Amino acid sequence: MSELIQASATLVWDAAKGYVIEKALAPGLDSIWAHAKRILFPRWDAAFSEVQRNIADAFESAREGDAQFIDRLRRSFDTGEADALVTRLLRDAAQATTDERMLMLAAAAAGLLTPALDSEMRSRVARVLEQLEPSDVIGLREASAACALDHDVRQISGPPEATRALEQAGCLFHAEGIGYRSSYEVTPLGTAVLRALQAWTPTAN
């Protein structure tokens, strides 16, 4: 069953068209996959739809400002990297415990398809997003905005767990000692996470 799920859940990413499709299932296995999705990936259909829409919107927007976007994107990715990233985030989104987290991860699937991040950073961001909740990212956004204005960020908005989660994930640095402008600073990894989630808007806002 695990091999079936792995094969069936794989995505095909078409950079020229900017959308993803499910690979065709072997004859006779579609009903098994449909049953498996309901059990193991309860939000699969909603997540898949969001990933498709986000990637299509992101590519259309990028092309409007950069006619060479697709070519630059292709050159920046290793073979199979885009498929692996999108597949990983789609699966995480499909298993999310809340709609908000599903939407956040689906947005990241499109946000990581950018030449602005190198392959290693894209991989790091994908792993970090498995550890973060929407409230963590909201706190990170606010901290980043405050740091950009040279404000001293002494606490992170949201529940106490958000600060710990961001520090443990490597997105936030607790600065101590002389020479730091802020008590908390957003790391390069944290900045990359925010870059990947630029298009995500919390539904509660």
Q: What's the helix and strand layout?
A:
Elements: H1 2-9, E1 11-14, E2 19-22, H2 30-40, H3 44-65, H4 69-76, H5 81-94, H6 99-111, H7 119-129, H8 134-148, H9 160-169, E3 172-174, E4 184-186, H10 188-196
Antiparallel strand pairs: 1-2, 3-4
- Count up the helices: 10
Sheet having the most strands: 2 strands, antiparallel
**Neighbour order of strands in the largest sheet:** 1-2
Radius of gyration: 18 Å
Terminal-residue CA separation? 40 Å
Helix-strand sequence: HEEHHHHHHHHEEH
**Total tally of structural domains:** 2
If you average the pLDDT, what whole number results?
A: 81
Low-confidence stretches: 1-19
Helix/strand-derived category reads mainly alpha
Number of strands: 4
Shape: globular
Helix percent band: 55-70%
Strand residue content: 5-15%
List keywords for this structure.
single chain, 205 residues, mainly alpha, 2 domains, two-stranded antiparallel ribbon, 10 helices, 7% strand, disordered N terminus
How would you describe this structure to a colleague?
This protein has 205 residues and is mainly α. Helices cover 59% and strands 7% of the residues. Helix 3 packs across helix 5 and helix 5 packs antiparallel against helix 6. The relative contact order is 0.12.
Short description:
This protein has helices at 2-9, 30-40, 44-65, 69-76, 81-94, 99-111, 119-129, 134-148, 160-169, 188-196, and strands at residues 11-14, 19-22, 172-174, 184-186. The protein has 205 residues and is mainly α.
